[in-house]
Amino acid sequence: MRTLITGGAGFIGSNLVRALQRDQPNAPLLVIDDFRSGSFANLSTEARSHTPGFTYRGDVIAGALHSLDLPAVLERFNPDVVYHLASITDTTVTDQTVMLRDNVDPFRQLLAWATAPSASPTPRRLVWASSAATYGTTANGATAAQRPFALDDAGAPANVYGFSKWVMENLHRDALAACPQAHLVGLRYFNVFGPGEQHKGKMASMIHQLAQAMLRGQAPRLFTPGTQARDHIHVDDVVACTRAAAQPSATPGVYNVGTGRTTTFNQIIDALRRAIDCAHDTQYIPNPHAFYQDYTCADLSQTTAALGWTPQHPTADTIATYAAQMRQQNAQVK
Ligand SMILES: NC(=O)c1ccc[n+]([C@@H]2O[C@H](COP(=O)([O-])OP(=O)(O)OC[C@H]3O[C@@H](n4cnc5c(N)ncnc54)[C@H](O)[C@@H]3O)[C@@H](O)[C@H]2O)c1
Hints:
By secondary structure, the protein is an alpha/beta fold.
């Protein structure tokens, strides 16, 4: 199995690389990454304390996808599976041309590769990261009703990041209509947290940011009233679902990847306090953002039916375990 992972030096990509290499130590891996938000450290030994001794054995091409000769790279490496996770992930980027060029243009080339005739008896497989940002802040009424987001609720992205993912979904839909036998699976990740996200800075999960503040001895700060509820999912579950999407048995399409449950920000702090001694009460501040997802929750019915996957990690317990890992890692660095 020859596997190309775009964005493999990033948070989710590097967790995927580790899982693939663990299970198929001799299978060729190629990472393409321009390191704008990823780091080589994610592919080296020290990045994650719970996988000591990891040594990446694959190749890396450093470069932005839109400026590489991607068709030539695909022809040379000849992957069986492409996991496409590279993306601008800074949702505060407002340059619309850059967001759409960098996120959407390379995807056209990957779709062309995945739908081209090939001599192989199994279709080329393309699994790629969409986002819950495609639901925006209203999600076709699901937000107001506080019900899980069904796939058809998407299409009202509130920022250009979500819009770029939505355009990719449109291209995916058209490619699949033209080539129904193609193995194309898009995954709308909800709020992902876990080891390997520290390099994301202000784009790391709220769980990471709140834990780090508490570990620095600061009070955790939330937007009033802290009851905003989102679907937070551990990266190990996301990796398992992403791999399930590449199995020949997976049904092509676009699916939600969350836990199907919500955790409020107040509950996150309760879980973090189980692992981190913090003398400070939570501070509440007004939310300055006009467009903010106060509620997200994935409807997983189609995900489970199409990919045979269900989440395995209960959120509150996993948050507490992750907080303990961060506490230990910070202590080692000091
Ligand atoms: N983390 C989440 O909660 C979340 C939620 C929804 C969707 N996603 C999607 O999952 C994917 C992975 O996200 P992540 O959280 O690991 O973020 P990340 O920023 O850690 O990873 C993205 C990686 O892609 C690389 N990259 C960005 N643009 C590139 C380009 N044009 N060419 C080559 N490399 C490029 C970055 O350097 C980085 O290593 C992204 O597509 C993201 O949109 C993530």
